[in-house]
Amino acid sequence: MTELTKEEKEIPLIKYEYLDHTADVQLHAWGDSLEEAFEQCAEAMFGYMTEIDKVEILEKQEIEAQGEDLLSLLFHLLDEFLFLFSAEPFFIARKVKITEFDRINFKIIATGYGETFDLKKHPQGTE
């Protein structure tokens, strides 16, 4: 496993909130850029699934997502991270950083920073 840098271990400010919805919950995220708003939305999803303060930044996982427009791109970004959580490596991110954001072809490459989900350490919320 590669050692993470001090910058990679830095905890981002929370720029999201949860809004009630009849079916489930709405993730309301914002940022100084569209990239940051997408990152915050992914972090909000993980925060809803467990107590995010209990997640340590010990490793990183990279994902790629592609859509047909910005809305479907956001959906696929969240879906890719949800897959990492639901299947091996059972990864939960404390921080998400977009490294490539192609607004013409609707493609994202992002890195999640966190650790393997552990029921003994991370109380389970909703996915």
TrEMBL record:
<protein>
    <submittedName>
        <fullName>EOG090X0IKX</fullName>
    </submittedName>
</protein>
<feature type="domain" description="Archease">
    <location>
        <begin position="16"/>
        <end position="127"/>
    </location>
</feature>
<dbReference type="InterPro" id="IPR036820">
    <property type="entry name" value="Archease_dom_sf"/>
</dbReference>
<keyword id="KW-0106">Calcium</keyword>
<dbReference type="InterPro" id="IPR002804">
    <property type="entry name" value="Archease"/>
</dbReference>
<dbReference type="GO" id="GO:0072669">
    <property type="term" value="C:tRNA-splicing ligase complex"/>
</dbReference>
<dbReference type="InterPro" id="IPR023572">
    <property type="entry name" value="Archease_dom"/>
</dbReference>
<dbReference type="GO" id="GO:0046872">
    <property type="term" value="F:metal ion binding"/>
</dbReference>
<keyword id="KW-0479">Metal-binding</keyword>
<dbReference type="GO" id="GO:0006388">
    <property type="term" value="P:tRNA splicing, via endonucleolytic cleavage and ligation"/>
</dbReference>
<dbReference type="Pfam" id="PF01951">
    <property type="entry name" value="Archease"/>
</dbReference>
<keyword id="KW-0819">tRNA processing</keyword>
<comment type="similarity">
    <text>Belongs to the archease family.</text>
</comment>
